[in-house]
Amino acid sequence: MSQSGQMRDEGPVRFSVFIPVWNDTVWLPGAIESVLAQDYPHWELIVGDNASDADVGGVVARYDDPRIRYHRFATHVPIDENFNRTALLATNEWVQLLCADDRIRPTCMSRLAESITRASGAPPPADGGEPRLALALTACRRVYPNGDPADRVWYGSKPKLAARSGTYDAESWFKLLMQDGQPPWNAGSIALSRSVIEESGGFFRPEVGLSCDVEMVLRASAYGDVVYLDEPLLDFTVRSDADNAIRLWANRAKGSEQTPSGAAILTALRVHEHRRTVTPAERRAALAAVARSHLQRAAQHRVLTDGLGRRGAIRDVLRAARFSPRTMLNPYHLGYAAAAVALPQPLLRTFQRWLAARHPG
């Protein structure tokens, strides 16, 4: 084992896929079967049952494969805490979350393994330290439960980040994620080094809330390089009744002080500042990203039924200005803020549809 704690030159890349589940026996079989369909054999699958009322164990027992393990927890905990405690059951170096309603493509693990092997064989850093890979991930395809494409509704008025396949250091990955756009990946095709999980205090940080997956992907780069593969190797299911949709509604309806992505960015920024020198430009980019998240929520307050109307919009515009006055002075963002506050609701909806049409996904 290297000084960094990451396994090197000791056989094939091995994955621990974990599925945290609570009562979701309808979707679970498809997730398990997508793992069984992999063309790559070096994996284990752990199903962490969050004290379900439904017979989750009976569903898992249908699959006779020694690589599959079922663990029922005695107590029910919030969703992110169940994610973390299930991740702790992993025994392999690369830990991959798969939600019960998502499906990985048959080549997902083999392509991730190829990327990890290639990136791990890169020359040592210029400072002579031990190279370390913290995170490997691929693009995804967002679909409705019936399989139809859902990229347009998911991305909305935000374009996809222009992420290219390759290996990123902390600064280049941070710069990419601070751009104005939506990431083309999602949990399911993200593999995190187990040594990074142990060192950084967990797979997710539950206190971050809804966007703890965004925080994890950004935080991980403070511990090592990130390798990204621009191939859609996960089918991520977009559901109106999913937990993330419910928590996003609660964040808006309660007028929470912070947006989900804003909380994630600020938490990860503190980790980067603790572990390396963050430049003033990087910090400004992070605060600008937080400001843009408030502008986006400002418009949502006006056009969505669970929003807080013009009062909520004004509040979020002021928060955006507090985080990044420079962002607010940009003509585009200034116009967006004015539209979010002042336009009649029908015109604002038309404006948002126009923005969405510019970014078909």
Descriptive overview:
- The chain has 15 helices and nine strands.
- The relative contact order is 0.11.
- By secondary structure, the protein is of the alpha/beta class.
- Helix 8 runs parallel beside helix 10, helix 10 packs antiparallel against helix 11 (280-303) and helix 12 packs antiparallel against helix 14.
Lay out the secondary structure:
Elements: E1 15-21, H1 28-36, E2 43-49, H2 56-60, E3 68-72, H3 79-87, E4 94-97, E5 103-104, H4 108-120, E6 133-143, H5 151-155, E7 166-168, H6 170-177, E8 190-193, H7 194-200, H8 212-220, E9 225-237, H9 243-253, H10 260-275, H11 280-303, H12 309-323, H13 325-329, H14 331-342, H15 345-358
Helix pairs in contact: 8-10, 10-11, 11-12, 11-14, 12-14
Q: How would a crystallographer describe the biggest sheet?
A: 9 strands, mixed
- Please give the CATH class of the largest domain: Alpha Beta
Alpha plus pi helix count: 15
Order of helices and strands: EHEHEHEEHEHEHEHHEHHHHHHH
How many structural domains does the protein architecture include?
2
Distance between the termini: 42 Å
Name some characteristics of this structure.
361 residues, alpha/beta, Spore Coat Polysaccharide Biosynthesis Protein SpsA, Chain A, 2 domains, 15 helices, 16% strand, globular, disordered N terminus
What would you say about this model in short?
With 361 residues, the chain is of the alpha/beta class. Helices cover 45% and strands 16% of the residues. It has helices at residues 28-36, 56-60, 79-87, 108-120, 151-155, 170-177, 194-200, 212-220, 243-253, 260-275, 280-303, 309-323, 325-329, 331-342, 345-358; strands spanning 15-21, 43-49, 68-72, 94-97, 103-104, 133-143, 166-168, 190-193, 225-237.
